[in-house]
Write a structure and sequence with these properties.
Length: 132
């Protein structure tokens, strides 16, 4: 029983590190996209404005209709991140479940009846993950 627990803990740590790496990469990519979009918008306002002070005011965003465009773009990025985060997390949970199941099965004596919590298999695990 102790070896099963140790194997599952190692798997959990590995899965968590992989998931965090993927999420970090996703956040960095989206951060760069948002930063670029914001910089492009500000540069466009500055280039279009006949101001000599080089400052951008909140009013400039409204006058050029860029405020609503930026908010819309930020919301689209947030939705995209949320969807990708769910996909990454669901895949990690399913891999962890399948690994834990294989570890328990590998320690079971040959011909032994599977414990009732292993019977549902991956389909039930997928359904359970998606319901939470």
């Amino acid at each position: 029983m102790r070896r099963i627990q140790q194997a599952n803990e190692r798997n959990l740590k590995r899965t968590q590190a992989e998931t965090e790496k993927l999420l970090r990469q996703l956040y960095m990519e989206q951060n760069q996209k948002l930063y670029t979009q914001l910089l492009d918008t500000f540069n466009k306002i500055l280039n279009d404005a006949d101001k000599g002070d080089g400052k951008i005011y909140t009013n400039d965003l409204f006058l050029t209709n860029k405020y609503h465009e930026l908010i819309k773009y930020f919301n689209e990025c947030a939705k995209a991140i949320g969807g990708q985060q769910l996909e990454i997390t669901e895949a990690a949970l399913l891999r962890s479940y399948n690994y834990a199941q294989s570890v328990v099965e590998s320690f079971a004596p040959s011909g032994a009846v599977q414990p009732s919590f292993l019977v549902p298999q991956a389909i039930k695990a997928e359904q359970a993950i998606r319901q939470t």
